Each structure stands twice: as C-alpha cells, then as structure tokens.
Inverse folding.
C-alpha cells in the first residue's frame, strides 16, 4: 500500500503533465497569424472544393470559439475536452474527430501492445541470461553475440529498419502484404480475416520488436547485475540449490519487479516511435491518421490525435505508478 | 595537492581516451563522414536540389556514381549535402539540449530548494509527454520550418531525460569528500560546479551528449521522412521522403533510398560506439576484455 502523500504526488504530477500538454496543444495552432479555418478553406477552395464560403467559416469559427478572447477560448476548449468533444474533422467532414480516432485506435493499441509485450519478454530473458552468464569468467558466446547484435539494432530508428524490412520482405521476397491492416475483401470475423490481420501486423511489429529488444536487454542486464550482489543469492547458493533454480526462482523473480517501472518512463518514446512506423507501413492506426491530418492541414484532427496520444501515454504511466506499490510495497512508503 | 590530483586524473583519462578503441573508431567514422560529405559537396559539379539539373533516372555510372533521381538530380551530390545538413541540425539541437540539461541539473541539484523542485517537476513532465506527437503538431502548424527553428524545436524536447540523469549524478557527487572539502575551503557554488563537478562528470557527460545528438537526429529524420522538415533544403530524412513520394521501392530505385538509410545507421551506430567507449573510460570496471 502507499501513503496518501505518494498518491497525491502522482496525481498532481499527472494533472500538471496533462495541463501543460493541453496548453501546448491549445496555444501552438493559435500562434500562426490568421484564422486556421480560413486558411484551410482557402487551400480547399484552390483545389476546387467549396464547403460553403463565409457561412461555413463563421460556423466553424464559432465551433472553435475563434471569435472570442483568448481566455474564453481556453475555458471553452477545456470544457469541450472534459465532455470528450474534440470537434469536427475538416477533411472528413461531417465525421467528428472522436469518430476518426476511435476507428484508428484499436489498430494502434493492438499493434503496440503485441510488439511491446514480445520485446519486453524477449529483452528481459536476453538481458537476464547475459547478466547471469557473465558472472563467470567466460560468458556464453551465443548469449553475448545475440546481446551485442540487439544492442546495435536498438540504435537504428524504427522507421529505417521498417523501410528495409518492407523492401526485403514485401518487394524482393513477397512474404508479407504491404500497407493497410487487413485485406478488406475478406468478411469480418472469419478465420481468414484474423490471419490477414496477423500477416499485416507482423512486419510493423517486427520492426518495433527488433529495435526495442536491445534497450530492454540492457536494462535487464543492469538489474540482473544488481540482483547478483544480493545476500539472498549467496544464501541460496550456500543452501546448495542448483544454478538453474537460483536463476529462475531467485534472480529473475527479483529483477522483473523493478523493470516494470521502466514502462512508465519509456511509454512516451515507444508511442512516438510507433507513430512513424505506422506511417512507413501505412498501417491504419493513430500514426497514419495523424499523417493524413498533417497532409490535409486538418487542424482539429491533428490536435485531437496529439491529445489522445498524450492522454494515453500519461495515463498509462500513471496507472503503472499507482499499481506498482501494490506489487512492491517498498516503493510507495518513502 | 588538490590541483595535482586533478591534473593526474585528467592525464590518466586522456591516456584512456587515446587508448580506447571504441571511442576512437566511432569518432573517426563521424569525423570521416563529415569531412567526406564536406569535400564531396564542395567539389561536386552538380546541384543537390535543382530540378532538372541533369538527365533523370540514370543508373549508376562513372559520371553519376549513385545515378540520378526521377527529378533529374545527382544522387551522390544530394547525399553529401543531405548528410551535412542532417549532422548540422542534429549537433546544433544536441548542443542546445545538452547545455539546457546541464545548466538546469547543476543549478537545481547543487543549490536545491524550490528552484530544484520546479526544475524536477518540469523534467518529469517533459519525460512523460510523447515528444514526437508535439513535434509533429508544431512542425505541421508552423508549416515553414527553417533550419535554426528545426534545431530549437528538436532541442526543446531532447533535454529532459539527460537532465534527470545529470541531476541524480550531481546529487550523489555533491556529498563526496572532495566537494565538501572545496566547500569548506570557501569555493563559491559556480567554482565548485565548474572546477569540481563538471571535470568529474566529463566522460559521463560525453556519453550523454552522444545520446542526445543521436536522439535529436532520430527525431529529425523521422519528421523529415513524413514531410515535416525544413523547406528548400536537403537532408537525409528529406531524401527518404522524396524517394517514398516517388515510390522508389516499386520502381526499384534502390540507389536512391538505400544510401541515406546506410549513412543514418552508420551515424547512429558510431555515436553509440562513442558513448560505449566513453562509458568504459569513465567506469574502468567495464573494461575487462
């Protein structure tokens, strides 16, 4: 259990993070001179799309409270946010921003969750083995080989690895399909449909996993080295337990716990990286939605997506911080 | 006595730097890439950006070593110019972010108090916020990003993690004997920071500088890849963006999209090797084999 102080501290940090992020989100689009809606309309008009001229601009400006003073705009903006109202998409009018995001979100969450879990588990095992075998004079060649390769892979950005994987496995060797999240000619819910989803997700997930494994492995090795210095390992050895048994039930168990907190720290980086990965693979998630919004200068949609990403990441971090003390009671009491 | 020991330590570290192969190799590659791109840019008879500068879609030949792109530009010239700009933006952003992180960490952790609490909270906030989402928002809204602005934007979201790590390091160093001794002998805070703390963190700071530059360049190339880079310039990310735009994959233009990827990977790996080398110099225990 944790003390009230810890709880309040976490909650207030969460609130502050959200407030700052929302403020940036609010202020940045208003920094450019002129009315963003008008700018967009002018752009569309040049392309031959006429959404209704002055009336439409006025309606839109009212919707975004652009005709009001700045502080009132902010209050209204916050009020709308609290009610989950992110406004209307300009490009996909009459769809609301919430609808667009809801359509994309399951893809992103599915892809990210799978990739992160696989890389976390893989990295943990690899790093633990690395730390464990290194305590002897001569470590295992295989383990350190894989470790070094994963370390170098972790320095390559997701999108570059993604580009290369796409080229190798969809153009040179046609193993996987390219683009989209599923073959849309298949009907929903059939086994082929599910297989198609997996086929489409494999490459983007692989590029995330390959890059991430190294980072997790490095963390895990550090944690394992720490655990190796603990007295209880010494005791376990003195008791005459087998190396394998010590590794599994003493060393790994004790290093898993602190590694969970890393999720809270790295979630932002992971989410950031996956935005561009999705774009490279034209995967139909949040990243691609953001990309198309940027291409179309669809400000409400850009803002909405940014906000959802920020909200998701900070909330995930908060949940980890609040759940963690239950797993490791030493933390919350300080 | 104090000065002696410090000079001795720096000489030993200098020796360690010279004999550390990882650091040297990494540094040589980075400097090498920079020099080659600089010379290549200077002596190339072609223009990196002018459309229709040469005949389009030529395969690699002795005249155009990497061929030409569909818009009639020499790809090798493009690559030289792009590498220079990518490195320029990455290092500028890296230096700014590094300076901010160091300043905030030193002032906050050394002096403590309310200032430290505020700095600490802001650091945590910036670590949690997914920076790329905000970078995309800013780049999209500003529209016409130029090179200095791009560096500043990247720096604004690149300092937080390093600041947290620096702060922890200062907090632990601050309680060590030599810092207390310096304090007792009447050295001012600035003096202690400049003469005692920073010299003792040099390799550590170097390691993190490499990380920060690497992070800035990753974010930079990512933004440019999706078309949010500075206009009217060419960088590695921008070349990748062009090649995606012209479907370089399906058209088999591997001589266009692969070289920037290779240069980027080489830069990232070299920076990583440099940081590994510096880490070994700073923590001799890592230097086993």
């Amino acid at each position: 259990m944790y003390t009230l102080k810890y709880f309040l501290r976490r909650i207030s940090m969460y609130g502050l993070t959200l407030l700052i992020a929302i403020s940036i989100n609010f202020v940045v689009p208003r920094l450019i001179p002129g009315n963003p809606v008008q700018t967009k309309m002018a752009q569309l008009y040049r392309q031959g799309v006429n959404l209704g001229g002055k009336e439409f601009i006025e309606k839109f400006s009212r919707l975004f409270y652009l005709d009001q003073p700045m502080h009132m705009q902010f209050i209204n903006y916050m009020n709308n946010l609290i009610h989950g109202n992110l406004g209307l998409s300009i490009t996909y009018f009459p769809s609301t921003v919430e609808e667009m995001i809801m359509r994309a979100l399951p893809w992103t969450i599915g892809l990210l969750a799978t990739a992160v879990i696989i890389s976390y588990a893989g990295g943990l095992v690899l790093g633990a083995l690395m730390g464990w075998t290194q305590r002897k004079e001569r470590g295992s060649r295989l383990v350190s080989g894989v470790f070094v390769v994963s370390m170098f892979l972790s320095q390559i950005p997701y999108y570059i690895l993604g580009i290369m994987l796409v080229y190798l496995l969809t153009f040179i060797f046609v193993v996987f399909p390219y683009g989209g999240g599923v073959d849309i000619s298949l009907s929903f819910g059939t086994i082929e449909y599910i297989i198609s989803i997996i086929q489409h997700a494999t490459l983007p997930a692989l590029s995330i996993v390959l890059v991430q494994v190294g980072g997790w492995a490095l963390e895990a090795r550090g944690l394992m080295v720490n655990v190796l210095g603990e007295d209880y390992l010494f005791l376990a050895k003195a008791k005459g337990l087998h190396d394998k048994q010590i590794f599994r039930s003493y060393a790994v168990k004790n290093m898993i716990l602190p590694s969970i907190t890393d999720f809270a720290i790295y979630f932002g980086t992971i989410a950031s990286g996956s935005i561009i990965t999705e774009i490279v693979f034209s995967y139909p998630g949040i990243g691609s939605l953001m990309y198309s919004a940027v291409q179309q200068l669809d400000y409400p949609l850009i803002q909405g997506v940014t906000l959802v990403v920020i909200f998701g990441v900070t909330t995930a971090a908060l949940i980890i911080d609040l759940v963690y003390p239950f797993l490791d009671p030493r933390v919350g009491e300080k | 006595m104090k000065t002696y020991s410090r000079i001795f330590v720096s000489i030993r570290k200098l020796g360690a730097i010279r004999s550390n192969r990882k650091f040297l190799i990494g540094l040589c590659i980075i400097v090498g890439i920079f020099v080659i791109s600089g010379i290549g840019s200077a002596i190339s008879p072609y223009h990196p950006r002018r459309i229709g500068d040469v005949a389009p879609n030529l395969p690699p030949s002795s005249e155009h070593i990497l061929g030409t792109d569909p818009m009639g530009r020499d790809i090798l010239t493009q690559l030289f110019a792009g590498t220079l700009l990518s490195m320029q933006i990455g290092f500028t952003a890296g230096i700014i972010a590094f300076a901010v992180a160091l300043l905030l960490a030193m002032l906050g952790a050394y002096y403590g108090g309310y200032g430290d609490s505020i700095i600490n909270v802001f650091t945590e906030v910036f670590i949690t916020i997914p920076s790329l989402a905000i970078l995309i928002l800013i780049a999209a809204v500003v529209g016409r990003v130029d090179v200095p602005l791009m560096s500043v934007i990247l720096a604004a979201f690149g300092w937080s993690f390093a600041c947290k790590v620096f702060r922890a390091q200062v907090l632990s160093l601050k309680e060590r004997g030599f810092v207390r001794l310096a304090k007792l002998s009447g050295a001012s805070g600035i003096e202690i920071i400049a003469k005692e703390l920073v010299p003792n963190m040099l390799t550590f700071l170097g390691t993190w500088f490499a990380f920060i530059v690497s992070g800035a360049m990753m974010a930079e190339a990512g933004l440019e890849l999706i078309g949010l880079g500075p206009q009217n310039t060419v960088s590695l990310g921008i070349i990748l963006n062009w090649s995606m735009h012209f479907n370089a994959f399906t058209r088999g233009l591997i001589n266009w999209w692969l070289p920037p990827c290779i240069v980027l990977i080489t830069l990232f790996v070299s920076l990583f090797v440099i940081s590994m080398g510096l880490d070994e110099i700073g923590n001799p225990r890592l230097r086993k084999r």
Summary: The mean pLDDT of chain A is 81. Chain A touches chain B through 51 residues (CB under 8 Å). The CA atoms of residues 62 and 68 of chain A lie 8 Å apart. Residues 97-134 of chain A form the longest helix (38 residues).
